[in-house]
Amino acid sequence: MTADLTLIADDPDLAPLWRAIHDRLSAGNDPADIATVTVPDLPPGGAAALRSWLDTPAQRRRGRTRVPRTPGGTKVPLRELLVVLALAPDQLQSLVERAVDRPVVNRKNSRLQSAQLRLELWEHAATQLSHLPLLLARLKSAGIEDEAVTQTRRLIDALASLTRELPHQRPRTLAKLAHDHAGDPHYFDLGTLPGQRLISAVAELARRPEPTRPDHIRALLADHGIIADRLSATVLLHQVRALGDGPIDRRLNEATTPVALNLLDLTRNPPRLAPQPLTVVENPSVIEAAMECGSPQPMACTSGQLRAVDHALLQLAVDQGVPLHYAGDLDAAGLHIAATVQQTYGAKLVAMDTALVSAAGDLPSAIPLGPLPSTCDPALAAQLQATGHVLYQEHDAVLTRLLDPAPSERGALQAVPRQAGE
For 164, left (φ over 0), alpha (ψ -120 to 50), or beta? Predict the structure, then answer.
């Protein structure tokens, strides 16, 4: 590039022209095919420079110009400009990139390439997932970004490879299957998008509605020989008596401290629970307090979550006719979980009422309350909002209510006495 062209490229009055040409080139236009360029914001100095290069003396005398101003902007004859600048069409791109300071990316070619990649991907998916037409339709409707094509192809291949082998006669863990079919033991973790797609695929193969509860999801997978994690998560049981003679029944009856049961315990050898009310609490600290004060009432703790193991225990209690009580923190998460347990399992909420908030005083904790779920009782919500702070189960007012219930409640909350020989 000559010094004159360098000066032209750096002239701020001509910058709008170079941007307009850059846009045309990026749209896929060939430089040799561009006859004119309309520049919406060309300043007077730029128009004057172009007219000095392109207009003939005769045109100037007659008041005519090759660079007319139109309602859409200033129209510049590009071919004539290239002749004046002694530039071949194939040299235009380098001048424009120098002036605009960014490369020309042919968006037309990029769009064509992207469209071709998507076409190839969905043709591949139609072959690989022919046994899962509903899942294939869902993947297509979700759409993909250009950079996600590789990841989507990996998902398609892993799903196709895994689901073709179902059901497994010899159960295998989800982590092992993810390792063998996707190269990553965590690829199909149930909280991830690939995990969700696997659930959809298995439900489609089973011709069953797609489950949403964690325990129902694991049951669906187990029916097809896929064992999702059933060992690491546990639910604590304290002072819970059992009436059966299975291994878990014996563990509960012989225990002197809280018993941690996992999903395998509750599904392979479920205990037969005694029919006294079971109080389910959100926080392990309540179980610690119950041990310290020697409370005899049966309790369980979900550790502030509703995981598959927690759902399994609650469903077991319902199936066996065990009355359920539930108590959680009075914050957004605690109230949401409480509403779920109440609505799903018919639990009676305890230590979660306006009287308890009053007993806790004006400053139940140092933590601001925040928004409350719409399921919260309006009177309770109003009283909590008046204090402006969360009421946790560690508060003395809550512990007193849970561990030293009113006389009218004590009879219902007493544990079934141990039988001789237990």
Answer: alpha
SS (H, E, C) 68-135: CEECCEEEEEHHHHHHHCCCCHHHHHHHHHHHHCCCCCCHHHHHHHHHHHHHHHHHHHHHHCCCCHHH
One-character DSSP codes across 302-355: -TT---HHHHHHHHHHHHTT--EEEE--BSHHHHHHHHHHHHHH-PEE-S-SHH
Pairing of strands 324-327, 348-349: parallel
- Cα separations in angstroms, 284 against 235, 290, 302, 305, 321: 10, 10, 8, 12, 25
**In whole angstroms, what is the distance from residue 258 CA to residue 288 CA?**
9
Measured distance CA(35)–CA(31) in Å, rounded: 9
Write the pLDDT tens digit of every residue in 369-405. 999 999 999 999 999 999 999 999 999 999 999 998 6
Alpha-carbon distance of 165 to 327, in angstroms, equals 44
Q: Is 341 exposed, middle or buried (0-12, 13-18, 19+ CB in 10 A)?
A: buried
**Which pTM value belongs to this model?**
0.67
Distance CA 322, CA 325 (A): 10
Rg of the chain over all Cα atoms, to the nearest angstrom: 36
Q: Is the pLDDT of residue 408 over 80?
A: no
Count of CB atoms situated within 10 Å of the CB of 281: 28
Judged by DSSP in three states, 203 sits in helix
DSSP state of 244: S
**Bridge partners of 172?**
226
Q: Which residues, 6+ apart, have CB-to-CB distance to 111 below 8 Å?
A: none
